[in-house]
Amino acid sequence: MQASDAFSHLPSSKDVKRAAAGSHSFTTNCKRILPRWLLTFVLEVVGLGCWLAGFAAAQTPDSLKYPGAAHVPASKPGWERFLTKPDPNAPEDEAQSGHTALGTPVAKRVEECFPAEPRNLFWEVDQVASGPGGKLEPLQYHADPTGSKVDDPGRNAIRGQNTWMLWGEGNEAFWGWLQERGYGLVDFLILLDSRKREHRFHEDGLINQPGMKSQTDPAKRILGLYLDEADGEAIRLKPPDEKLDAKGEPLIRPPEPPPGHRRLALFEPGDPKGYEEVVQALPKDGVDYNVYGYPSGVVGLRLFPNPDFFGSTPAAERARGYWEQRVTKSNRPDAYYTDPNVYSDPKLVRPFRPSMSCAFCHIGPHPLNPPQDPEKPEWKNLSSIIGNQYWRPTKAFANLTQEDNFLYHFIASQQPGTIDTSLVSTDHINNANTINAIFQVPARLERARKNPPEQQSTTNLLEPGAEDGFPLTDPRHTPRVLLDGADSIGVFGALCRVYLNIGTFYEEWSRCHNPIIGFKPQKPFGIATCRANSVYWRTSERYRIPYLTAFFTLRNDRAGDPPAVENATTAPMHLANVNDDAPGVKEIKATLDQEKAAAAQGRTVFLNNCAICHSSKQPDGFQLEFSRRWASAAPPQAGQPARFTLPMGFAEWEAFKRSPAYEEYVRRISALAGQPALGKDAFLEDNFLSTDIRVPVTLVGTNSGRAMATNGMRGQVWDNFSSEDYKNLPAVGPVRFYNPYSGVQPDSLGFNDVYYPPGGGVGYYRPASLVSLWATAPYLHNNALGLYNQKPSVEGRLAAFDDGIRKLLWNSRRVPDANHAPGDLRWGQPELTSGDPGFIYRTPQVTWINIPGPFIRELIEGLTGPFWTPFLTLYLWLLVAVLLALLAWWGRPRHVALVLTLVALITAAGIVVSRLDRVYWVVWLVPAVALAFAFWLWFGTPSRLAGRIVLGVLILLSLGIGYAADRFVNGGFGDLKFGPIPEGTPVNLLMNINPEAPPEVTLNAGTALVRGILLVRKHHLKGKPALHAFEKEAGLPLLKASKCPDFVLDRGHWFGEALLDDEKNQLIAFLKTL
Predict the structure, then answer these.
(1) Around Cβ 363, how many Cβ atoms within 10 Å?
(2) Could you tell me the residue ranges of all domains in the chain?
(3) Which of 83, 131, 420, 487 is most exposed, with minimal Cβ within 10 Å?
């Protein structure tokens, strides 16, 4: 090799000169272009910051602090078009369309296909103390004193009771969907596991159906399911020895279809022999199973064979085969009950759909005749009007969740005997309320006729108003059925709405809102659309609701001497009338005798302090208004109507009681009440013990969550069922609450902050009835005040009454103790409660938001829709990859530099907005590296190959993101587990997030939540340090986005605080007799 060849690879002098020139050119370009390039980058970042700041500047001063709570909820565009006419795009229900939502053919039916059961099957339920000496006896439906005939109103009342106990109005379609597609939260077939019957009441609060027994033999399972079985003939629902109706016709037969209307099978089975074997194995209690389904073993839940499982379609055949593979012929016979991979499989179609009647929540142990063993009640031990305060929401609606799942604690925060009635049609507030006892309905309707009527819209008037006697009266007198007074078009419309809320016409549900999850605007559930497209709705409207009305208003004027009460469905249950066989009854009645004098004095205390809200009997012309200028309102003069103006806030209550206006009220109510005579108190007879008037929550002072429910507001899901007066209610002004993150010590009532809810309906409570108060503890609208001892005996109810009523009247007694409610950590883990002034439900352990993998796509599609979900998780990234590939083919290095600059800008903006650098500073390396490469590609002299390599990396990254995102939404990475959420976190800090809060507030809350969780993970924090780090990072941002930042559950109703101790004890003695 020659020397010249050996050094030929070295640069020549010309090459060195060109390089120097290039270097000079590079430097010159940098000096010329770099300032403009950086300026553009900086201006874009600053512009983004100004855009975000602009949102905050647009807020009003009052709403700026907690804008999530001040926001009026949005509605779906175009919701106004179908207020009085059917939506032509709405689906039909199963009975009208002739097929299920999955397309399985079913029999088309009309209203007459659902005849109401006329036999008096539940004659032992709801016994009334109307016999001699207050002895319990069955409801009297007879038209004559001999009791041999039942007239038409009585027969309709019987049909009403049977409807209340049995009728689900077609909601088996909804509950069937929920247990299969409801994000792995609940499965009623697992809830009904017969092996747990012997402790079903203790663990779940559910009422076992008399006449049935546990079935634990694996050989007798029905399709692999342990279902309760009949206890011989005891299961049969039999009427009493009732022979004739008012026309002399026999009453020993079940209802028959009308002439010419043949009895239909619900669907054609694909395997007739197998289907018949299953039907024969099911227990039977003697009703029409096509109308009511088969008994499940739990009162209020009945089972319908699922057409999507037993039907004659290929899909149903595949469903049977898949069930056989995973359940009946599995090598793990108990897998369905124990393995989440089985029971959370959305492809697993269940063989039965549960139908839920009102009795599921409302039936409970009869206070006057409780069962000796709550697990083995007889029908005579049950009341369908008392409301089951032992019912456990976690078991009924979240039985598949575990205690390390945050969603378990969301449901567990709803105390026994309560339920968030917006659980499905979510309003993004965890606002549980009591399952109401239903007392003194005739007296309540009488009060409604005397309260000011309410203006109704044309839509409201589609439902009749029974209170005024004329269906289309407007304005209309109406009771306040819900605790916040939203149900305000009449009791007929309220009863209709209840069935929608428990699943009727579920085919329309998903069009009105996003069930369970929310995060999408609502539209009204239209009465006109229901009438046009739902056979079940028309059946109830035409038949079932009038029957229920007849049942709840049934009364017999032949009242005996005290202590007997009138024989009426909703008659009070006085403690004096407890069954003589109940344990401890002699001592209880002896105590009542000893307290007679105190109770008489307590009656005066009641009139002087409580009757203005808790009596349906009021002076003539009684009307209440509420104003911050109450002191300037003149008291009514002699002969004028009893109209009074009350303060808006509790702080002024005692001053109001010293005013001439209140003195005039006490004078008038005392004159009206008079004195008891001959053992009777005419004032308390037919007294609902509530005015049923909306009272501002600012005056009551209790937890404001339920008062902030928005589903009845204009354009929301229950718009059609709230009056115009409700929709136009003024804002209540500042609502005081306890902010655990303000650093400000609470005042004597537990407040240290305020928020401002909007007007348009929210912010009010109607007073609770005090009828049979001794039997309905714990107290307040959420059952959060007082002892929950799970003892339905008379002694157990009295113990709960005594504890609850004393905490109600003595605020100083509302302190943590060993009998605290679950989730109240002030007793066992005080270091996690930060000096909470009351009961805030905090998670008692580290939790995760856990969604089973197979439901992730369904969850995301519910939020973004079926188009955007695959686009954002897959097709967008494929499109980006294609565009990058095209750029790699045609583009120049400077084009790649622009792409990297855009990547740097987006990631930098994301970091600035999310502030993830507060947890991991290394995230800045992403925009820094992208910017460095962009700088090199723009100002350097890279070859096109270098640019293509960079783009190749970006293409692979885009494809990788698309693959991972698509696999994630399809459950390929397993369950979605978001956490850890530290123990001690207030449940409502997360569950009350308002997705419609201003975007920058919601964004800040979401990113703060992520940062808080990442901080706990990064530093492996536990206990108090974990909670402190999480709340320091996320507490205030989440509170600002909250739809209701008020978390203390057992606060408020301090109206007895100013009474003397003797007066309080006298009042307790009186309240015990109601």
Answers:
(1) 29
(2) 65-93+417-556+704-763, 146-169+171-415, 773-832, 853-969
(3) 131
